[in-house]
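Handout, section B. The chain below has 364 residues.
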Amino acid sequence: MGGSLLGRHLQLMTFGESHGAAMGGVLDGFPAGIPVDYALLRQQLLRRKPMHPDFETPRHEKDEIEILSGVLDGVTLGTPIAFIFRNENFKSIEYQSFKNIYRPGHADYTWDKKFGFHDNRGGGRASARETVARVAAGTFARMLLQQHGVLVYGFVSSLGTVTMPEDAIDFSVQAIEQSALRCPDKEVSQRMESLLTKVAKEGDSLGGTITCVVKNCPSGLGEPVFDKLDSALTSAIMSIPAIKGVEVGAGFRSTLMKGSELNDPFVYNEGRVVPGKNDAGGILGGISSGADIHLRAALKPVSSIRKKQHTVDNDGAPVDLSVKGRHDVCVVSRTVPIVEAMVCLVLADMLLRQGINSHDAKYL
C-alpha cells in the first residue's frame, strides 16, 4: 500500500491503524539545531483531542508523544524524527456487529474493492485517528515557520446552516480558542451549539467549513506548473479524512465576479510592491505573493450516525444499520489543528526547497 508519504524536501510518512498498537510518523529532512518546543507539541495535540462530551467521541487517548530519534537534549539533529503514540482506549468489539456490512459514507466498500480486505476496527488506516501523527509533524514544521515570523491559524467559519460573514477573517488565536467550537464570533458560536444539540438528539451529524489564514508568508514560495503552492496546499488538506473541498482566496465566489472585480491591483506601500486587496488569497501563478494566504476547507458530516440507514452486506443482502459506539456528532472544530498542521508542513517544505532554513539571514 503506497500513498503514506507527503512532501519533497521535508517528508512525512505516517503509519498505524485506529485499533492497532500505535500510531506514528517519520519526519525526514527537518533541519538540525531547532530547539524542540515540547509545550507547543502538547498544546497542539490537546487541541485535536475531543473536548466537548455532548458532540464528540468519548474515546480519550493520552496522545503522549514518544520521540524515538532525531532529537538530542531537546534540539533536532537533522536526522529523521521518528515518533509514536500508543493506542490504549479502543473497543474493537463494538465493530464486530457490522464486520461484513458496508457502512454508508465509509471506506469499507472501496477498500474491499482495492485490497480485497478492509479493517473494520474503527476504520483502520482510514480512520481520522491517523491524523494525530500529522498534528505532531505539523507542530515541528510550525516551530520552523515561527523562526521566520510565519503565523498559521484556523477557525470554524460555518457549521451546517450556521455561517459566519464571508469577509470575517482576521481574528486573534485567543479569540478562536475561547470558543468551544473554535468559532471566534460569540453569537454565531452559540447558534452552532444549539444546532449541534438538536442534531445530536436526532442521532444525526453535521459538517461545516474551516477557514485557515497564513500571515507573514514570504513571497516566492511554490514552483511553476505541477508544484504550485496552492496545488500543494489543497492536495495536503484534501488528504484529511472528511474533507470534500478546498478553495483559495475568493475561490468559487470568483466565478460570480468580473475580471475587473476579481483582479488585485498592485500598490506601493512602505517600500514594497503589494496587492491592494487579496481576492487571490495570497497566491498568484502558484507562487506566494507575500500577502496573507486565505484557504477554506469543507468537511462532510460524520458518516457514523445512530439514525437508521439502509445498506447491504458484502453478499449484497439488505441491512438496516444504526451505528452504535463512540462517535462524534461533528468533527469540524477538532479538524482545525489538523488543517493547520498540513498547511505548516507544506509551507515548511516549500521554505526548505527555496533554500531558506533557520540559519539563513535572508528573508524573502
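Note. The helical segments are 38-48, 108-115, 131-146, 173-177, 186-201, 229-238, 259-262, 332-353. Compare this with the example in section A.
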